[in-house]
Predict the 3D structure of the following.
Amino acid sequence: LLVLGYHTSTTLGQVSNRSSSGSSSAAVIRVQEQVEWMDQPVDRQWAVSGGLAAWGVDCQGSVVGVGPRVYLLGQQGGVFCGRLMPWSERLKTLQDVRKFKLGLFYALKFQQTSQQQQIQPQQQPGHQRRNSNPTGSDTAGSGGGSAAAKRLSAGGGLARSEGVGAEPQQVEQWMLSLMLGHATVALQAAHKQQQLQAGNHTSYVQQPSVAVRAAAEICVCLCLLLSRVDVLFERVYPLFSRSGSAGVNAGGAVGAVVEVLELAVLSDLLESLPPEIMQALVDHFAEVGQPERVEGCVLHLSIMSLDLNQVIRLCESVGLYSALTSIYNHIGDYRKPLLDLLAAVAGAGSFAEAHRYCCKLLVYLRCCFRGLKFPPGTGYLSSTGGSIDSIKSALLGSLLYLDRQDLITEWQQSGGRAATAAALITTSSSNGPTQGSTLKSLMFCAGLSDPHPALQLLLSVDVAAAVAVLSEMTCGWDAVETDLRVAAGKPAAELDSVLVATQVGWG
């Protein structure tokens, strides 16, 4: 079934002659769209004797278009009639034959037509009123008027076929239906392919197929285009998630949609993720050995839209300290990230790992003392956690006045990796230096000793960077020692003299 392009009657006659000789020309006939054919052909004699001639059409042209219908003269007798489908029937036909992507292509065109139709009357108010005939005269008796009526009639059928008059909500529903149908077919095909590989004992990697990945991209992009994140979270993700329990490898189907969601989050197109999807995000990237990609998502998501208990627990389990720092700072806690990163440095299993955490901690301290958010480039500190001076006092006081036992107690109470570092330090002290040195992960814990264990820990990893940051922290700052002790939770006893921050930092 096909629709011919617009041609003159002379050209159509040439088409008829070539068709009768068994040849065809791609330059003359162009397939455009499927149409519906009426079952019973019209008798040739009726058409030639005056049936079609009543419309003033030359029947020798073999093809005649009248409004939304097209009449073709058959070679063996009879005239066949077809019609252009309205836009909804076109989408329904494509859906029935499982041409979902083609249906989405046309649905997008129909949506643009519908939107333009709504915008144009607003841009040209009173346009029809100004162009109307004020005298009320018409040209019904002229031949030109008859031709114009025919063009309007044809244009009306073509317009309905191209989406003119369609309600945006109806087009949107069709787009979502075609989208879900395409995703379902892609997942079913992936399931069959997996069963075939399993039957042939063929090894395959738990990676999404090209078709599943493309289906995930279509679903996410379309839902974002239509601003239907409810459909994305309540229908699209469960569809990919259920495919895992139904037999398709969960790493392939769920991983495909999770990776596309990651791109949307990093592009700031999504501000929040439900807990179930956040859990899948962490599980997937932890499985493929790329937990830092979760950290990038957390830094782009709206903190207040997340389940903080879940996100903090997930980030602590895989050591995403940048994300943890951003979350704690958002709720006004600037001391907890300092303690967590000190524990990470102390419990590092290699110098490279310790240096990475040490640099992260020093960058965090510099940002706080400059009044900037962490990570750098995300704005200025808010007043949620107090004034800048109070934040600086809490951080510098903790670095200076928390002793070894204070750090161990804090880490034990934090749990997770911090508690593990505290346990390693305790084990190292109780077993003695010889046995403790056999544990590779204790090579940095051995340097945790009084006085000022936090400062010693940082200096043992990178002296130059630590001194540069500490000098910037104390330069020109007149905070007194008693304020620093109170901010660190170590009230000052009777002191012979009181020092300011600059003297304390370099004493």
